[in-house]
Amino acid sequence: MVKVSPSILSADFVNLERDIRALGPAGADYVHVDVMDGQFVPNISIGIPVVEAIHRISPLPLDVHLMIDRPLRYVERFCKAGADILTIHIEADTQENNLEALRRIRDLGVRAAISVKPATPAEAVLPYLELCSLVLVMTVEPGFGGQSFMADMMPKITEIRRYVTEKGLSCEIEVDGGVNEATGRTCVEAGADVLVAGSAYFKAPDPAAFVAALHALRK
Length: 219
Prior knowledge:
The chain is α/β, with parallel strands linked by helices. It has nine helices and eight strands. Helix 5 links the parallel strand 4 and strand 5. Helix 3 packs parallel to helix 4.
């Protein structure tokens, strides 16, 4: 079954606890938490104290996506704040530092993950796959919600799926950016396991029905 990870970037921040608690009854699988530093991406969102607070009330595992420069400096603190999955970006630091960051995440009992921007080729994930429980493919430029889905990223998803299968790894492929029921189907057909939905989930007339529709894309 396809997993659904609603992005709280599109939630009502005045009523954030309400919106997060509602994810469980809606049938979602993860809570996607976008952390932006204003340097790696041109936007600022939330930080460690908010992740700690979300962890205390979340009915679901926290899928924390670090869109920050040199994440090695902060991965231990985000793990201790309550991340269940912690994603760093390939483009945010050197390969050596990224590998060390993934090792530290794993050593703390958290699922380590790597993400790639649209311009980054599929083969860039190869040095990291053995350390990863998840690979996140961006289908928009990271930094802002509500952008249009980039269908030309589908070959990248398929290629990463091939790498994972050939290596016999247990590694989910997640897609983030412009995901709705129609684009979600396209992602799943390309090889995705987890769909991040922000605006489409929080603006849905019936969020539970929306989640059920995504779950049904692959039985």
